[in-house]
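Q: Can someone sanity-check these two? First one:
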Amino acid sequence: MNILTTATGDFTLTRFPEHPREQLRAWDAADEYLLRHLAESGVELSGTVVALGDRWGALVTALAAHGPTQISDSYLGQQATLANLGRNRGGADGVTLLTTRDTPPARIDVLLVRVPKSLALLEDQLHRLAPALHADTVVVGTGMVTEIHTSTLQLFERLIGPTKTSLAVKKARLIFSTPAPGPARGADPWPLSYALPGDIGVASGRTVVNHAGVFCAERLDIGTRFLLQHLPVRRGPELVADLGCGNGVVGTAAALGNPEAELLFVDESHQAVASAEATFRANLPAGAKATFRAADGLAGTPAGSLDLVLNNPPFHSHQATTDATARRMFLDARAALRPGGELWVVGNRHLGYHVTLRRIFGNAQLVAGNPKFVILRAVKR
């Protein structure tokens, strides 16, 4: 089930990190459709080929002979890409891996767009890439039918040029855009900022900065709001991690509540890490200590180094619903916490995180709850 068959060969692909219990494929029908179109239509790939949003490296692995550039917001996605290139191509030689925060190529001859879940991220990235397109640039997007909406096509039309779609094949569709000379794109609206509400403790009224694609970029989500209303009151020098930090509002609130704390902001999204740093800098004095890291959770954090971990774990991986990410976050937290250190988690009540925490920590205390969310505290013994 892990072999992608294309016109250029068969490729064994996996996601990162690999989950023995959850064999989710590292590609789907949208990737297959795009690769088949490139082979059958004879698109010239000798120039600068850019694959935007290539989720697990399927596109650049299949096209590695053409020296493509991958632009991705996902640290995990790029680790998967490196692993897949190593497994199938002997390494990443000739392939350029960029993040959504890096400067894109100055000229793009073929732009391949894997439509992201976030329309805002697509908007921001098309704004960034459009100046590098020219009249002969081939622009092809791809996605599952459920991912491509009228608003998606309108973005391509407004930011690139005339746009049309293909027929659906295996519930996937292609998007074809023709670069127009000097379209009136307007300014990129991202990042966005908003003021926090006044009932969430030390962070009340503070400014939050959100780069495109960050979860709940236009308002405070209700789970985070609930956690902010019940953050632990702590004093003294300690090392606190905002794990899966998003826009960094939770870690920023912890720093505001305890000025002696040193913060670690971690997320697998480069856009999120940039947002967290901007939020922190907007609200803390210049001397406040913090580290910002795009990473695979707390992997690489020294064992027994953390005093407190704050976590609002995701339970989706693209279209798949899974608790695998939460389990790994909890395991990472236990390894990184010192004895007596605490993990505070907010989650939907129905997810049953208390059961998982008891298996991993041997304990889980309910701090607060409402009909939708619970806040749980686990202590490393």
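And here is the second, same format, sequence then tokens:
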Amino acid sequence: MALPNNLMTLEGEPLSPDLLAGKVVLFVNVASKCGLTPQYEGLEALHKEFSDRGLVIVGVPCNQFGGQEPGTPEEIKAFATTKYNVDFPLLEKQDVNGANRSPLYQFLVGDGPDIGWNFGKFLVGRSGEVVARFEPKTAPDDASLRSAIESALG
């Protein structure tokens, strides 16, 4: 299975495949009303620090955990950009678990266990393979996450 190439942004536009091609991508299922929501700040810091080396962070809003992402696409975008100055791409809201798991999360999870909560993280290498998975409570400045990013960037 390969990374789907038909990802849609919050604005309802296709995410340009060129944005991800040959890059290291950190996919994160995000939510606006979660105790872990302040991780947006650290994710934006990673984005700023490593984007020039080929890291792309992609937020994937999900409302499956306690209804913590109830907003419209416009509300989600306004929240992330206004409160946390998020400049990385946000995709359309998706299911990450269950019968309606999105194709993206079918690829990311594979045969692994379900996502446990908001802010689960998957690191995809330049050649399009999942190289690491991090649990929701793994903060963006965690040494193991930073090390995996550095290693994938080469």
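A (reply): Looked at the second one. The two ends are 24 Å apart (CA to CA). The domain at 20-153 is CATH 3.40.30.10 (Glutaredoxin).
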